[in-house]
UniProtKB/TrEMBL annotation:
Transmembrane segments: none annotated. It comes from the Bacteria. This is AAA family ATPase. Signal peptide: none annotated. SUPFAM superfamilies: P-loop containing nucleoside triphosphate hydrolases.
Amino acid sequence: MTGHLIVISGLPGVGKTSVAEIVAARTGSVHLSIDAVEESILACGLPRGRHVGVAAYEAVGTMADLNLRLGRKVIVDAVNDSEEARQTWRAAASSNESRIDFVHLVISDALEHERRVTHRDRGFAHVGEPTWADVQHRRASYAAWSDAVVDVDTLERTTDEVADVVVARLSVR
């Protein structure tokens, strides 16, 4: 029994979680979000920092692996701006020979991206919202993709339309 892992990636504010939720609902997939796990870890009183982010990736990677072993489709949403982060998903998929697809969401207009980042409130008490300067810093250090990746521009599409593109391009049912 093999599963299918879809990793929805991109900078903060491009719509990863919204798209992941829709794709998961439409396809009966398990949805795992790095930010939700990080929020839970921080709610336990651990200090913010790189270690908490790494722990969130590792925890979600383990949950993805367990669900893939059951032959499930798993949708993960995470920034995935480094090879180290992407290796988490490769390892989860390869441990049970599951299919893996990377989706990279972008917003081609920087002013619109900035507007979305500065006006969003996801309701997290501990993770917080990144500033536009934080997003720009991450953009500057975002690792080039070495994997095949489906790029989708979210600028002129609703989240439902982006989810349609993801489902169609990856033949997810």
